[in-house]
Every structure is written in C-alpha cells, then in structure tokens.
Amino acid sequence: MIVEGNHYFPLASVNAALPELTSHTSVCPWNGTANYYWLKCQWRTKRECLWYYAEHKDAAAQIKGRVAFWKGVSVIA
Q1: Contact at 8 Å (CB) between 25 and 36?
Q2: Could you list the pLDDT tens digit for every one of the 77 residues in the chain?
Q3: CA separation (Å) from 4 to 16, 62, 63, 64, 68?
C-alpha cells in the first residue's frame, strides 16, 4: 500500500529477528505519533529506518498494523 509516497507493508511480513524497537518518535498531524525501529543490515546499522503508527489517528486507519521503510532501504521479498 502506498500512502503519501511511502510504501507500507504488513508488519507480519517483516522478519521479526531483524528490527529493534527504539525510543525515537515523531508526530505527523494527520497520521499520529510514529514509532521507529533500527534495522541492522549486514555490516552496518541503519538507525530508525523503519516506522509504524502504534496509535494512529482515524484518518490513518488504512496503515494500521503496517510498517514503512525510510527512502534508500531496499526491500527484498
């Protein structure tokens, strides 16, 4: 699903062994508060490159249970 140029994937489709939850958050006026994960990639760590909305606003109901990756992160199925 694409929302505002970001590709959102079902959280269940992400290997749970890869991301690590961080304490970092940001606020979007129409989606709510975003929570972030670190994502370790082979020899380096990309910080806060995966996000989701644990408590989304009503206008963002379509992204409930979904995560998005920061630009530049390649997703391989």
Answers
A1: yes
A2: 888 888 899 988 887 767 777 888 989 888 899 988 887 666 666 677 788 888 888 888 899 889 998 877 776 66
A3: 25, 12, 11, 15, 11
Q: Which residue has the tokens 């991301």?
A: 19
Q: Indicate the DSSP class of residue 77.
A: -
Instruction: Report whether 40 contacts 21 (CB < 8 A).
Output: no
Residue with tokens 């979007």: 28
Indicate the pTM of the whole model.
0.74
Q: Are 62 and 30 in contact (CB under 8 A)?
A: no
- CB distance 73 to 49 below 8 Å: yes
**Is 67 within 8 Å of 50 (Cβ atoms)?**
yes
